[in-house]
Structures are given as structure tokens and as C-alpha cells.
Records
---
Amino acid sequence: MMNTTGRNHYIIKHNLEALEALPNFIWNSAARKSRPPPWYQHVKKGDRWVSFAYTSTDSREERLSLITGLYECTRKARFGKLTPRAQAEARHKGGAWLIEGKPLNIRIDHPIAVPPIDVLLKRRAFNQTTFVPITAHEFKHIKKYVRDHRFDPATIPLYGREPTCEQEVLSLVSFAHKQLGIERILRSRTRFPDMLVKLQGKREPVHLELEVYSKSFFNHEHHLLIGRNGMFADKDSAIGRKPVGVLCWIDDDKRSPKTRTKSRVQDYVQRVFELQSLIRENKKIRW
């Protein structure tokens, strides 16, 4: 996928702290001065990359994926000194291999949560490597996703940033439930389903299962617990059968029913709500 004559495009993966310590750079402090890291010599002026970070979550969760910037290379790979902040994040002290870039004309003031790489690209990617070569079309698709999903993190209740794990999603919903159209939280617990709530304008209580990504519903095997018509019967209480919905920070399972080959979360529950969209658009949960 590397273009030897025109512009190349990449996704560059670092941990979030490294990207924020030296935002305009691709950098590696582990490689020797005499031996540049793989791919570094291939990046030339004019090539573009997406800075892509993972944040750690609890053991049950997929790691939250974040985009911190889109850049164009202005200086080829060289060995040089690190800033004091980058030194604090460096694996080895001293110099590092550096590729310098400039931000593209799309402002990203805060990291933007996105679906996992495979979902974003709609194909399998080399997830164990720092450099993921992508096409110009894929780069444009990611740029559009970033532009469409930017919003001020100050509008996110409680944290003022995007939640990084399921527990933070639960805390956010508990704190801002009125804003989200939840009249009352009738029950909250650590096993499936997370919440039993009374929604504004709906007489019957409903179960809400909270996730960072909607597909985690399958990873946690919750689909095996759902009855017919998206109902759940709690055998440990007198609540009886109630409808189930998934409330996720990012819905990464938006495949069209006409093109999909596997089951969707929507096939098992009655509703799927994307929490970040509700907050961005100032909307409430409507069943």
C-alpha cells in the first residue's frame, strides 16, 4: 500500500501520553541512533498520518480508541533530542528517532473517541504495529469522521471529557440521567443488565445495559441472556420481563441490514442509543 512516487498515508499508534507529550511528531526512543525503527525511513515530506491512541480501561473492556490529530510530514526521520515532557514518557533517556509534521487544516483541541481501527477502516488492520499503511480514500474517510464527531468535551457531564471505561459511562449516566430523559433510576448493579430505569414518556420500566462500544455487548456474551423480542426476565426479583436497550458511548455496530452477514446488537435488544450523539445533539432517550 506504500506509494513510492505520490503521497503515502498512515495511522500512527502510540499511547496517549506519548502523543500528547510530542503532538506533532512520530517518535521512538527505544531504537539505536545507528538503526532507525521500521518504516521511519519510508516516510517522506508530504506524507500524511493520523495520530491514533489507546487508553487503558478495565479488564472487561475494549480499550477506548482516540484520534489526537492529523498531520503532514515536514521533515524526514532524524535522530535528535527530546523535550523535557517527552523525556518523562520515553522508554530510554537521551535522544530519539523523530519524524516532524504540521497539523492539517482541521482543528482538534481534544482527543476524539472513535471506533476500533478495524471498524473505522472496515477491514482487518495490522494492530500490533506502530505504522498502519492506509489509502488516501481511508484517510479522507477518517478525516470526515473526525470533523463530524468533534464536540466540546466541556459539554460532557461529570467528567468534562470522554469516558474511558464502562464504569465511567455508568457514573456519567447516573449523574446526568435527567438530562438524558431518564425520569428515575430504579436499580443499578454490577451484573447484567446494569440499570432498570423509568424513562420520560414511557409507562413501563426498561433495562439499560451500558457499554463503551456497542459490540462489547457480544464480547460480554449478554446476547445469550436475552429472551424473545428483546426482553429480559430477572429470576432473582419480582420485576418480571422487561424490554432491554443498550446505551453505549460509541455505536460501532451500525452495519446496514442489507449488507451485513452477522447478527447486530439491534437484533437482540429493542433499542441501541449512542450516548455521545445524545449529548452532542442535546437529545433525550426516546423509546
Note: The helical segments are 16-21, 84-89, 117-121, 136-149, 166-175, 216-219, 275-280.
---
Amino acid sequence: MIPTIKRIGPFLILVFTVLPFLSIVSRIAANMSFSYILNILAFVLLGIVLIVNTTKIYFPKYLLYYSFFALYTILSDFFIVNKSFDFKYLYSNGLLASVFLIFFIENGKYTEKFVNKYLKFNVLILYIALAVIIIQQVVNSKFLVDPNFVKNYFFANNDTQMRLPSIYSYIGGSITVGLSFLPILGYVIADSLKNAKKDYVILFIMGALFSFLTKYRWIMINYIVLLILIPLYKKLNIIRVLLIVVSIALSLFAGYFLLEKLNVPVDKYLQDRIFETNSGGISHSSAGTRLLAFEIFSELFPQNPLWGKGERLWTYGGGVDTELMWALKGRSSQIHVGYLSLLYTYGIVGAILYILFLIFILKKLYQDALIHKNWGILLAFVGFVLANTTLVQFTINDMGLLIVLAFNNYLLEKETLGNKVLDVV
């Protein structure tokens, strides 16, 4: 009989696969974010495991540092920010819940039948996500969009700058859009290239369209990173390089004319959103907030360098960081560079713990990729690291990252053990 802890990982992958739709139902039926339900579920599952588990558990080194960081943030909340420890604090603590979720995923038992089945489901959801974002661009920008997302993120003055979330707005904010779609896309492309399939071209085109239509620059950059997969799997010579360049050029032209036919103003979009000529250029617009981040950081960080100021902006019970708000003067909502925000919020001590977590998870995934040859998993987390150069996201709880982490577990076991295991779902 398969131990309970081995069954939880596959159950969670089932939940993550249909998470966009569960989140819609949760919001409409109970007016509640499903992320809270997921956090509570993580605590319940942990309690079950603590009571019934009798088998050996696996706790990778990267998760140890991630756990230390989560514990440090809790101590920071209580001793620096003076938050209250209550039930709402627990179920709204996505960072702590994500520690448990990763723990369950790393200890799950995944079979070939299970992975193949849910991989197909996830590919289908990628196509659904593309179809929905096209509808949002062409027909109705609020189609399947959470009203809370509209309130918080539909701040653009025109359609060419309005960010589009596809099916992911009910799960979370803008970061969720990219970290739900691109990791799975990267895994599927790597699997296609690894097994010499031809559908990787279609997958790359799909990713390009999706990334372009979201209007998030960081998503476009993370998509470009996926192009590294081509030389990783293809032996490149001059002729092949030329063919790839020509194929990309033709695909771009085809995409351009297709979008124009769908009444998507590509030229205006490039000017307004990519180069932001309507607001004085990149250095004077949203990218300018990153320059502002360095200015504010250099001013405020020396006041609390070791332990940090504490999280006062986004989490439950944080109050208001009046000093930061005064320094920003309405020019931005936060220190808009993840690693600077990390240092400002949690100090050198917290930043060291988090950076050690990033180093060890990337090291593990690199070593695993050398064995199972799916480099898309590593690039998913490289994308997460890159995203934090412009965004602020310390929690690993997005469906794309967690699903490919489970697939990494399966591939590694398949290559290293080669033994058959029973289906658990």
C-alpha cells in the first residue's frame, strides 16, 4: 500500500491543473480567493501527515533554507512589525503554506501514466489560456477576468497598455499570469525537443502570442529565455541556424499579419507598451520605477540593514510603511526590484537565507537536468529568478512552478531507479 504522504503530491497536481477553474468557482460561489482555501488545505494535509505518516520523508537542502526564510519572515512579522498571530494570519500566509506544498510535492510518487495524463491536460489548458487571451484582446478585455484584478491592474489609459491575464486572474495578480503559463510551456517544449517531436514550433508560436498579448515585458523576456532550449537540444550548424532565423522571421511576420487581421494594433502596441514613446520613453515610464527603486533603497536601507524594516505593504496586519510611502511620493507603489525589496524588508539576514534557497534549488534542478535532460524545468526557475529583478515575489506557490517541480521528481526517479510504481490517482 502506498503511504499517505506519497499520495498527496499527485492529489495536489490534480488541484493545480484545474486551479484556474477552481478559483473562478470559489470567487463566484463564495466570494473567496481559492488561494486561501489552498493554504488551509496545506495545513490540514500537514496535520494528517504528522498523525499517520510512518515512512521516511525527503527534505531537500533548498527546502531547508526556504523553511528558514519562512520562519524568519514570521519572526519579523511579530517582533518588528508587531502583527497579531491569529487564524487569518495563518491562512493568508502563502509563504508558509508554499513550504508545505513543496514538501508534499517532493515526497509524492508519480507514475508514467499519471504524468502523461496530466501533461495532456496541462497542454490543453495552455491552448485554452491562449484562446481566452485572444478573446480578451479582440472581443472583451474583461472576459473571464476577476473584478478584483480589474480594479487593481486595469490601470492603463488605453487598450495598447492594458495588461491581460487570460484565465489566471482569479488565482492571483499579475505575477501569477506568467508563472502559471510559461513554466509548463517550457517543460512541454523541452519534452518535445528531447523526443524529436515537431510540435515545438507550434508551442513556441503559441508562447510568443500569449506573451505578447499579456503586455507584460517581464513575461516577454522570460519567454525569450525559453529560446535557449533550441541550441540545448539541436546540434547547430550554419545551415540550421539560418533555417531557425528564417523560421522565426516568418513566424513573426505571420503573427504580425494575423494580429492585424484580428484588429490588434501591433504598431501602436509596440510604441506605447514596449518602447513607451507616449510617456517619454522607457527611462521616463514604468522602467523608470526600477531606477527609482535604487534611489529609495540607497536612502532607506542603511536605517535597518541587518534585520530589515519588515513586511508592511501586502500581507495581513502589516499596516502602512509611512516612511517608504513618503519617500516614494506616489511615484511607485513599492521598491520595484525584487532583490532590493528583499533586502529592505528582511535585511541582510533574511536576504542571505533566501539567496541560499535560490542557489540550492537552481543547483539541484541543474544536476537533475543533467540526468533526465528536461531543461525546461530549470529554465522555469531561472525565469522566476529573473522575474524578481523587476517584480517582487518571494513565494513559490504558482501552479506552473509547482507542477514542473512534480514532473522533475517523476523524471528523476524514472531515470535513476527505473522501477515501476503503482498509480496513486
Note: The chain has a mean pLDDT of 85.
---
Amino acid sequence: MILLLYLCVYLVRADLLFHPALYFISFLPVLAMQYKAAQQSVVAGGTTKDHLRAAFIVFCLSSLMYYVFIHVILTADAQAGIYWQEQRIALTELILGDELPDEALEDMVLPSISQWFFRFIFGLLGGFLLSYIIASFAKTRA
């Protein structure tokens, strides 16, 4: 469902594919699915570890699908890569509050598959914490 949203945005207006708002909006269904998985584990009478596992598996699968999809889009469409770089530059300038020097612009190349993998692994750390919070919330609501 979320990948369909990304595909529709890509087909209609590819320059919005890497907008931070789209990323956060698309994360809401993931949170709902994590809660639903943890809640089903609670209803089944599982332990806290089971609730956490259910929510974390949902997070892992959604993150993996996201990174594979984005990597495929960026490698298949050169224009999407340009949009990705423009959005990354704009976001970095917004955070820093200053224009980036030319040396920094040269470093903003498309990530390799190993760089995507490390981003995925690093994201799992935060996903674990989020899954723990969701599992705890589902357990207390039951």
C-alpha cells in the first residue's frame, strides 16, 4: 500500500518523491500496522518479547521495501537521482541555515548498495526503540 503511494507520486510528480512530508505521511500506516501486529500478539496471549517481535518485524519489512524501492528508482531513472540530490541539498541548507560550499555539493552523490544497506541497518536501531514503545503501548491498552 505504501509502495503504491510512492509509485503514484513518482508517476504523477517525481520531484515530490523525496520530499520529507511524503516520507512522514507514509510512515503513519507503518505505525498503525506495527500497533496492529503488537495488539494481535497481546490478544494471542504472547509475552512482551512477542509483542516487540511482531512490531519490529513490521518495521523491518517496511523499511526493507522502502530502501529497495528507492534504490531501484534512483538507479533506473537519472532524473529521479537529480530530484533526490536537489531535495537533499535543500534539506541540508535548511538545517545548516547557509548555502553549501562547492566541495560539499560534489560529495552528494547517489548512495551505493552498501551505503543503502548501512542506512537500513542504522534505521533499525531507531525502529527497535519505536517498536518497543508501540509494543508497550499495545500491552497497556489491552
Note: The first helix runs from residue 2 to 12.
---
Amino acid sequence: MDPRPRRTQPKEIHVKSVAATALAVIVAAGSISAQETQTAGMAWSLKAGDQFSTKVTIDIELGMELPGLPMGGGDQGFHVEYQLDHKVGESVDGVAKIDATIGPVTAKISMPMMGEMGYSSAEDDEQNPLRGVRHLVGKTFAYSIDKSGKVLSVSGGDALVEEAAQAAAADGGGDNGGGMMMIDPKALAGAAMMLFRDETLQTSIGVHTHVLPGAAGGASWSLDREESIATVGTIKFKAACASEDGAKITLSGNEISFEQPAPMPGEEANPMAAMQRKLMEGLEVTRTAVTGTATYDKALGRVTSSESVREIDQEGQLPEELKQMIQMQGGQVQDDMVLKRSSKLTVKVEEVAGDDRRRF
């Protein structure tokens, strides 16, 4: 036996492993750096005098399962489509102040057991109960946004809705409610107009604009959001946003909370509205979902298209007053009857130009 100590040769695989690990770190770092470069500067960068137009489509779907009621719960739908012509008045310290003028408006409303009706301001119908929405066309409101697209203020919406509502009240025709029994036809146009109040405009604009980090960052970022959904309520959440190429953005909501809507003007004098509010206050939220996509154009310095979806499911026991109403209508009542309600808001925004403007 050779008494001399044996020398151990270094393992080549170990050297290769270290080299491979180092290479992987370099590649990963390069990938992260590339993503940060692509997403850096994703901010609204509007200039005074900039002008652009958007087509806004809002769909509110309300579903209700009401066991025992002869006519059932049924679904309600509100669809409003309109054009906004935006003009930037000034842009100082990252805050842009913008005037938005309402273009052509299309409105559709559907209610259970009562049918569907629609109206377009481009094709006026003097007998249409929704005709009042045409008084919105040509009216202007103002809003301001920061670099991330957060809506800092909205003004003029409440005033233009009041002005349009007064003009609609003077309209003739449409007194049959399109076959919708016990429905005030003027109230139908009023329901569509509510989407143009300051608080609701802040949401419909913000779901489109407030999706950017507003500063240099990585491939993901978080935004605090609060949105008021007409006839549904207010949701608060953290928006988790991501983009790998600095153009296409995805969004999902975390830590979502929900609050019932504030009372509408004159609601206390309406027994049915009061009953509905009491019913909604007794419901618990069982599911929420917030999703969205957007496209950012760095050359233009703005988001050019987006689609946002908000979903809320609720359920709860029926109040005694409603049980009595069901019995009066010939329905069957049980002690453990559960009401289920679903709400879905979809907002789509896309820039339009040339022949596409004022033609939808």
C-alpha cells in the first residue's frame, strides 16, 4: 500500500454548477432589468392642447333569485354607450386638467316581465321613454388626473344631469312606458342619467385611467382603488397590476370590501324603494371579483383601451314584510327562504378617431 496521502481532484461538475448558477443569475438580472426598462415611465403624460375621443360602454347586470314569488326574481340590465371628446386644458406638475364633452348616447334598459327598450340620440324617437338622455349630448364636465391616472376631481356632472333632467321633464310622449307597467317613463331616462353624476363619472373614468404605476418600477405594482357603482354600492380594493412589455396591462383585485349604496334623492318618499333598501341591507356578500385589462401607448402618453369587470354576489334571509308581500301575490313562503342577488359591472373604453367617431 502506498503510504503517501492521495490528492483529491476537484469535481468538474461542481465548477460547471457554479458557472451555470452564475449565468442564471446574470440572465435573471438581465430579464428583470429589461422588464423594468420596458415598464419604466408608464405614466399619463398629457400636454396642454391634447385632444382625443373615447367610446365608453357601461353594462350593469343585476340578477335576483327570489323563491316563492310567482313572477320570480328576474334579471335587470342597464346598457349605456356614449362618446367623450377630451381636451387637455393644462398639465402642471404631473396633473392634467381635462374638459370632456358628451357625444352621441345610446341607452337600453331591460326589466323582468316588462321587456326591453332602447334609444339612440342619433335616431331620435319622440315617443321613446328614454328620449330624455338626448339632453346630455353636447354638455361638458371637467376632471383631473395624476401620472398614475388616479382621478383627483370631477366637476360639472351633477349640474349637467340636473339640467338634462329638467329638459327631459318638459318632453312629451313616451307616456306608456314602452309596455312597462307601473314604471314612470321619465324615471327610466333618469336612471341612465345617473351614470353621469360626478361620483359615478369618477368611477367610470378611473377604471380606465387609474392603472399605471406613474413612475419607474418593475413588472408589477399595486394601487388603492375605491369605486362607486350606480344602484349597486361602493367597492374598495387593492388593484394588483402587471405588465411584461410596458403596453399590455392586467389587473386583479385583492382585499375587496363592499358598502351598500347611499340613499337616492326622494327615496324615503317611495315605499318600494324603501323596501328594496331594507332588503339589500340584510344581504351578506358571498363572492367578489375584480378583473381588468388595459393597453398603454407610451408615444401618446395615455391608456388607449381597457375593459374592467366587477362582480358581487350576495344572499340573505327575507324580511317579514317581503314574505307578506309574496303571500299576498299567491306565493309560497318558508321560514328559511333565502334571497340571492348578483351584480356585474362591465366598463369598456376605447379611443375612436376618423370615421369611427360619432358613428356607433
Note: DSSP finds six helices and twelve strands in the chain.
